[in-house]
Amino acid sequence: MTSLKSVVESLLFVADTPLTLDRLCSILEEHDRRDISAAVAELLAEYGEGTRGIYLAEVAGGWQLRSRPENADYLRRLNRSRPYRFSNSSLETLAIIAYRQPITRAEVEYLRGVDSGGVLKTLLEKKMLRILGKKDIPGRPLIYGTSREFLESFNLKDLASLPTLKEVQELTARDLLEQQEELPLPGLNVNSTE
Amino acid sequence: MTSLKSVVESLLFVADTPLTLDRLCSILEEHDRRDISAAVAELLAEYGEGTRGIYLAEVAGGWQLRSRPENADYLRRLNRSRPYRFSNSSLETLAIIAYRQPITRAEVEYLRGVDSGGVLKTLLEKKMLRILGKKDIPGRPLIYGTSREFLESFNLKDLASLPTLKEVQELTARDLLEQQEELPLPGLNVNSTE
Amino acid sequence: MTVASPADIILFPDSYQTVYTIRTEAFEGPFDLLLHLIKKNEVDIYNIPIAAITRQYLDYLDVMQELNLDIAGDFLVMASTLIQIKSRMLLPLPPDEEIGEEDLEDPRAELVRRLLEYQKYREAAVSLAQRELLGRDTFVRDFAAPELAEIEPEQERLEVELFELIEAFRRVLATVPEQTFHEVGAEGLSIADRINELLLLLQGTDAAVFENLFIGSATREQVIITFLAILELCRLNMVRLAQARSFGSILVIPTFLDAAAEAVTEEDLDRDFA
Q1: What is the ipTM of this complex?
Q2: Does this model's pTM top 0.90?
Q3: CB atoms < 10 A from the CB of C196, how many?
Q4: Disulfide check for C251: which of B50, C6, C207, C212 has CB 3.0–4.6 Å away?
């Protein structure tokens, strides 16, 4: 018999999606949730050491073994995975939806200032977005949100681990070394356009 | 930059077939064959220690990372609840029934243009459909509709929350007429969003 | 004044291909172009020299036109907004007693708010792109492990997105002649919902009082939908309407899946699944 840690490592290795603690517990039903959690923690620590070719990422509410990003140049030569390329408009639209979801197409377009139907469709096809339902306002427009695949693609544990817009701005400001003084702008209420 | 060993480990991790020394050398062309060989030997030694959940197997004249065979029972449980993906024909049939219910098999087949008996059966087994009754026409064919489970799996409140075809088509309408007619510049009051 | 913009670089394209790509890559939209002009001119976003910026903006549209590029309607809409703001800034304020609240606000305020808001998301987009992207920076084993290949799943979890369902329906419709189809709107689907609910309600009962089926139909629209659903059920012969005596209650009698005569038999299933 091998250890629980070994079993968890095997599971993480063969699973083709991130495994959540709930999923691990239902697979390892005879084990204590606390023990499973501890095994994951041990693995996280082990994979965190040194510069191994594999690391244990916390994504989409679970854990997934991934290749070390520093080795990406070599891995691309294997030519196996479809490279993800996002256009600027896709990224812009994704950012808006990630921060403002649930959101309608009209709201996205108000923020971007351009028609966004085509981009939304592309992002739906790439499974980065989900249709969450319809908004309870006249016309019942569709509402969109980001998907689990979005979290996986962008290496995010959950939506809350996105930097806040303020943090993003501070980072950008520091990057550009051009501190813009902040003026109070009242009433940035974009959603009142229905 | 990480070590050659780390790169080899990443490659073995991502590859879906065993990698031979020749293949590794051709991918890592700037590296010496002897160094690559040594990196593999180091990895073999490391993975051989203890009872880790992953081991480096020598197969088909090459190497492949595999899950530890002793843990196979647990891995089977992972597979037991594998996510089920609909085939295109299942999705098509389900879509027709969702949007056109109540509907008979003959009507489904008229729309799809192909025999749909097998697909209907699968969808009933998956509990996506229910038999609503029999139609009062010669032959008394069964009438199908979608089930409560259907709504649950698509996270829908009711059938009325299904997006209409028109709503999705609107997303792409722009692509077809990318050429926008030119609007007269003056007097376009766009900001009247109060 | 010249327009220095990404389009300039491509004014002398070395291939047709290059010309084709600028349309999508020059500017994402009017906000993007405006922010570019503001930055290039090194002006304060809170105090935009609207006349100069408008002129440069229109110059850019001219360049696009000279290059025979399609100018998206959104760019033209912004042009008209800019012109409007410019003219409002030239107008003298109305006499004191007629000053409304909107007259007091800087005509540029709304535009500035939107530009700043847009800028935030554009920066967020950049920070998204800088993350360790799956398929670009990091890779996973997104294939079935060979050691699991022979294990048949015992129980499957359904995993499908609404969008895929709609796309499937669209594929079907694409192959069907148009007039055999009409768009089913929310109303048609509400009727289908109601039919499903009524069938559940009627299952296992001998009959239901007609009026009782309207309990819970709060709005006029819901009443109509319930009524249409009952009619549809009658048409399909899944219910029968009966009245015990004149002016008595109307009874809705389920005739579907009648245990004695009408149960779904093996034979029925065989016929459909043969």
Answers
A1: 0.74
A2: no
A3: 22
A4: C207
Nearest partner of C241 among C197, C209, C274, judged by Cα: C209
Which of A105, A111, A109, A11 lies closest to A65, judged by CA? A11
Closest residue to A64, CB basis, from C116, C122, C140: C140
- Distance (Å, whole) CA B159 – CA B99: 8
């197409």: which residue's tokens? A105
Max Cα separation, chain C? Answer: 91
Residue ranges of E strands in B12-165 = 19-20, 54-59, 62-67, 83-84, 103-104, 129-134, 142-146
**Residue spans of beta strands (DSSP E) within B27-141:** 54-59, 62-67, 83-84, 103-104, 129-134
Distance, CA of C255 to CA of C212 (rounded, Å): 18
Choose among C147, C173, C238: nearest Cβ to B165.
C173
Distance between CA atoms of A132 and B163, rounded to whole angstroms? 10
Taking the C-alpha atoms of residue C116 and residue C122, their distance in angstroms, rounded to an integer, is 10
Kind and range of the H or E run holding B22: helix B21-27
Nearest beta carbon to residue C138 from set A72, A96, A115: A72
Cβ atoms within 10 A of the Cβ of B141, count? 18
Exposed/middle/buried for residue C198 (C-beta within 10 Å: 0-12, 13-18, 19+): buried
The token pair that represents B170 in the structure block: 């609107």
Give the distance from residue B39's alpha carbon to the nearest chain C alpha carbon, in angstroms.
21
C-alpha distance from B20 to closest chain C C-alpha (Å)? 17
- For tokens 């910026």, what's the residue? C53
Chain C residues touching A13 at Cβ < 8 A: 141, 145
How close, in Å, is residue C170 to chain B by CA atoms?
Answer: 7
Q: For C200-240, how does the pLDDT look when each residue is reduced to its tens digit (9 = 90+)? A: 888 777 788 887 787 777 677 777 888 888 888 887 777 87
SS3 breakdown of chain B: % helix, strand, coil, rounded to 5? 50, 15, 35
**pLDDT per residue as tens digits for the range C44-71:** 999 899 999 999 999 888 887 777 666 7
Interface mutation vs chain C, best among B55, B82, B114, most C CBs within 10 Å = B82
Best A19, A103, A168 member to test C by mutation, with max C CBs in 10 Å, is: A168
Contacting residues of A for C78, CB less than 8 Å apart: 113
